[in-house]
Amino acid sequence: MRFIVGIFFGLLVLASPFIFIGGELFCPWNPWIDTRTAPGYSENAFDSLRSGMSTNEVIAKLGQPRDIYPDKPNGQIWQYTGDGKCKIGDWAWMSRTVIFSNNVVVQTQKRIFYD
Asked: Where do the domains of the chain lie, and which CATH numbers do they carry?
């Protein structure tokens, strides 16, 4: 009986690093486990983006985005990452977004989605 209890608690300890939020798990040793990235994407290049950069400067650093969404009349949202990379399980994913107005960066966003 002690052996079974020991195995149970051992498994519980192994599973404890997972944080369960809203239906998806966060994987602390591989946070990007379920994140698809655009070809040429680099986290260092994303971190180097600054407000005021042109769309051409962003493309030179990161390449083409995965998705482009219209925002306001003069703006766009470029998404460089997406969900669904991992084939076994549904994990949290890292969102990386660039928001433009009049073809100039006004904001970058780094978020974790648990959807």
From this structure: 2-113 (3.30.1450.10)
